[in-house]
## 1
Amino acid sequence: MTVSDAITISRGWIDNFNSRLAPPTADAYAAMFLADSYWRDTLGLGWELKTFCGQQEIATALPVAAAKAGMTSLVIDDRASPPQTVTRSGVEAVEAFVTYQTAWGRCGGIIRLCQNETGEWRCWTLFTALKELIGFEEKIGRNRPTGQSFSRDFRGPNWLDNRIAAQNYDDRDPQVLVVGGGQAGLAIAARLTRLGIDTLIVDKNARIGDNWRNRYHALTLHNQLQVNHLPYLDFPVTWPTYIPKDMLALWFESYAAAMELNVWTGTTVEAATYDAASGRWQVKIAQDDGTRRTIAPRHVVMATGVSGIPHRPAIDTLDNFSGPVLHSSQYRDGDDWSGKHAIVIGTGNSGHDISHDLCSSGAKVTLVQRSPTLVVNIEPSAQFPYILYNEDRTTEECDFITTSMPTPLVKQAHQHYTRRSRETDKELLDGLTKIGFRLDFGEDDTGWQFKYLTRGGGYYFNVGCSNLLIEGQIDLAQNADIAHFEADGMVMKDGRKIAADMIILATGYKPQEQLVSQLFGPDVAARVGPIWGFGDGLELRNMYCQTGQPGLWFIAGSLAQCRINSKYLAFQIKAIEEGLLTATPDKAA
């Protein structure tokens, strides 16, 4: 199909859609969608991140939302790629980018059209998204800020003076407190700042970037540079494909400075309570210099990762061991253990990478597997989900396409990636099976990404440790075969004893709701409910959206997830601050 054909088909469907807008009705829209169709909305026609499935559900919900939002006619977006034939989740479709407006915003979307059994073009997927709040546009580009900070008042405060005063918060409270200065905290703070929302990041570490800087010596990102930019400021074109941890840490630190983000490092949140009458939090914080302070933001954004508290499971008889027992978050460098014996419990990325690091440093390592683990080679297999970002498209357009896909179709795509990776990695996987390593491929064979989205781990991107296991340079033991621990090691049920000078628990982290309960109390945790994962829905639970607790928000995930979803989270907070959206426990607008 030519581009001209795709444009004609897209315009025909769009004209039909637009003709039914005044007034929109369910009967008018039903015939425009396939029976098996999807509509995902990210603030484009409502104030939620929501997915609708099936012709009837879409036809019922869409006209109500369109009328309420004051939706204008769809127009093909001439600033995006032209309509064309694409394959998404194994289905060939005509894909077109569109624009429109609502009462509150300039919006965009994507339509994907397929032929029905009679050859008529019907909508398979519809995506609607807010791109800009009318009257509250981001302070970027031609809308960049001007004013006193940039004046040449030789007797007045200069830019640095103003930045220091802004960060001190001596005369005010921030509108938003962001807890955590990793990629999630930096992304949401940058978005909010560009929307004119006074935002403060607090981070327990001494420097921004320490959440990466202080991790084990050999750590690098497991996905490629082009996927991982932060908002507004891409990584330099000179950087390597896989970014080392210290390089990323330095970038985070410089990003915070360049984006003029207000940051307090060495600062810990001790507790917080919400005053419904004032609509403000009372947040008690402690700083490393002994200073204590209570601040009263209207919003608290938890940006502490998918989970924040190290999980140290109760392991029978482990107390018998007399050497150090470290959680993986405490591990730094294998050089200190050269020539010694180490047991690493847990076979996710951290367990494998730490085992690899220790082995490379001359330690004798035994890796203990507690449950089946997904293993995929770092190249090419682990990069299959990011193929889109290698196309000749902008990062913004790739993000838009990624966001547009509803969860059921994303699962189908990842089942395809999993099948492909199993074929590509067959030699490696066969070798692991032969040594007794227990493999799995995710629920319904959806692969590593859905393991991350549902449980935050349970997989390993092989950068060489699997090969060391197969070659016998690192030993493998199964947790079920352990009899007990003794002062100097681990005794197996067959009588073998595995010596150890230290034991590392690569056992992951507790669910984030436990941190919520610790900081905000069990009542708030109960109002919020589960965080991360899907439950029975098609959107991540309590992420990037209003929660059951007014003024409490959550952002987490990879750099790409934080870059993409920070935009929608920031829009909601801005809308509340400007009176466009009401903050209520039931998320109602």
## 2
Amino acid sequence: MTITAPISIAAEPRASSDDEARWARCPSCAALVYLKRLDRHQRVCPECSYHWRIPVRQRLELLLDSESFSEWDAYLRPADPLSFHDSKPYPQRLANAQRSSGNIEAVVSGSGTIDGAPVVVAAVDFQFMGGSIGTVAGEKICRAADRARTTRTPLLLICASGGARMQEGVLSLMQMVRTSQVIAQLHEDGVLCVNLNTDPTYGGATASFASLGDIVLAEPGARIGFAGPQVIRQTIGQNLPAGFQTAEFLLENGLLDLIVPRDALRGTLSRILRLHAGNSGALDDSTDEPSSAPSLQRPAWEVVRQARDLGRPTTLDLCARVFDDFLELHGDRVSGDDPAVVGGLARLAGRAVVVIGHQKGHLPADLVRRTFGMPHPAGYHKAQRLMRYAAKFGCPVLTFVDTPGAFPDAEAERSGQGPVIAECIMRMSRLPVPTVTIVTGEGGSGGALALAVGNRVLMMRNSFYSVISPEGCSTILWGTAGEAAKAATALRITADDLYGLGVVDGILPEPPGGAPTDWDATAATIRRAFLRELATLSPMPATDLIRQRYERFESFGMAVQHLSSRPQ
């Protein structure tokens, strides 16, 4: 076969004039790709996975069930409110965009299903004037959001946009407020909103509806930002570094939940919708396993060493075994994605829950990356973000505690480590949903307490919970870390000690040899504990949950002796 001269493309492949051999050159790896093969791969380069743009209706076909899409508001046509004219009159540009894209406006909206789950969709088409948002595009997004709220149907916003439409001036700018307002109503009414940002998503879209979803997804390599590279160069003369404003950059900086390849998008969206489906099934309140296992009365220092065993299952290990499904979400939506705190959505016996926990790891590289489970401020911001999520959707919060404490470096202090822990404790104390905490390993000081303000607090048999590490206590009180074992005993930090003090509500048994010997058995014990506690807590009204949590911790106040007379 004769190969014709390849065509260099930036985003959308074009055929050569030779119908027998139509090829395109990938702008990422420079490989020649046969266009029919490219279409079979959903316009993703089979050599390097570069994602080309795709027309909006093709994207809807990929994501939605066959023939399930019903379009809304197709009759709405853009006007020319400013009588705008640059090199061409605005009406002429609109007519050209309508011919090239096949759409009347840049937004296509309607309803459909994903694996049978209903969803409202508003998708921005980059082929229509760069996906710019004018008054009619904004109107269609607002109408879609309003129908989603009225019917309590999840809203999926798909974006590929250069930002506001200049030809409609400040009226276009006002769409940022309009779209933000309707999404705020969704948040207030507890209706799920999911963003899928594709290449490119910039300007007024990023600074409004494209960033406000409960979950924000992006395709690999998608360029996402406020001011584009050209605008930045023209405004301040600065050239952006490689990889800046990509989906990967945003994920690293806590601004995305997930990067999802195109062939996995439908499955991921289906999981999200299933995790948010109406709760079903009866929670098991069986009492086949007591909340407090028989006391073993082992030395405190032995418990400390077992709690620190790197073979113990981590939060992610347990999430894979305890729950029927678990989808990890990333980022605090402010500054970063601290890997020392993990969390996301899960399904437990037909019930949607939010899970948050410290994450240590097992191997040296992972331990270092996760700072041995010691969170930075971004980790606690992430936890608060997930707590807000749980409160919005009425999901119980289940937390795993396993940390030596908050990370104590200078940058953490500059970023407000103390205040953010305080905010985390305050927010968790007022959650209107059931909260259950399990200390699975180390419970180190305020760094642990920030995730441990539960209606019920349980401990694994070989775990400990302390105001300070034994080594730290020994150093302060004895002048050397060598008395750590003595400090551990004096601090009364074992599960038995704390159960006796009423600090924890139950002790969960571990397999013979401890949790490291059998992760599955450990997870089964934890699952039963969660189900048992939720069966008790779930019927309680929000006001009772908050009051019970308040009274639980209020009970740890000091007994005050009232003197009959004042000392002379």
